[in-house]
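re: ur msg from earlier - yeah i can do the zinc ion complex, just paste it... oh wait u already did. ok heres what im feeding in:
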Amino acid sequence: MLKVGIDIGGTKIAGGVVDASGQIIEKLRLDTPLDTGELADAVAAMARELSSRHVVSAVGVAAAGFIDKSRSTVIHAPNIDWHDEPLKARLEERIGMPVTIENDANAAGWAEYRFGAGRGTSDMVMLTLGTGVGGAIVLNGQLFRGGHGIAGELGHTRFMRDGLPCGCGQNGCLEQYASGRALQRAANDIADHHPRDIGARLAALRDEKGAIKGPSVSRLVLEDDPGAVEALRRIATALGEACGGFQAVLDPELYVIGGGVAQLGELLLEPVRIAYETALPGYGERPVAEFAIAQLVNDAGIIGVADLAGEDG
Ligand SMILES: [Zn+2]
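and the outut:
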């Protein structure tokens, strides 16, 4: 059975026709319209185009934001001017098919659970390190959505008292210390404070390019540059410590780590595991979770939300 999955990102809308084994048969991309009023039309047009060439039973749409428990309404979206937006109804009248909407991090986590690094587990947590830290919780084989539909915002758990301000209105949130953006901040900090020793190459890079971007830090980590390795260690430590706390609450079997920084693989996971074990209550006296890198990379949102489309769970 084929379904359509569409992932609305801040700059791109990506959609695909996905089969029951999580394979994408056809894929489309377009720029996210700047005008919010055009967004539903653009998503609906993509869904209609994809379903015109395949026999499709349902459509799933993933977006960043708080989705209500009935999965009909976007309560709030960080990048789009939606407030209590009845997105499901708006899309169904344009597409003429059942539409399921889902938080983008949940969709990505669900894809990893069904078809990626989380296969074979029943209790899994996914953390996606990007501009922020996206979270998804799978408990007993189901996405955990909480009492109002908006659980799993693990990037907005408080990591530091009186810490850095966060876009959510709080301060000290984990995503300020463990995201791709936090890696850039750490690299800049090391360039500022250690320009003549471990930060020398980071400082030179910043002088040359005007800014330090995440992929450049990753490249320097692969070259074993001590400043870049230290920047990575800082965000890995924050992430691992936070997972130690999540373990006390959720006791998952597996953490799946995604996002651009996760392409560093074991170079990221090793310091994460060390910090996790340091922060884990009862370490040595209890089973510990595994850590793995996400496998579906950029397509996870499409695959996950297509799989969830038409389902009641
Ligand atoms: Zn926050």
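cool cool. The two ends are 18 Å apart (CA to CA). ping me if u need the other ligands too
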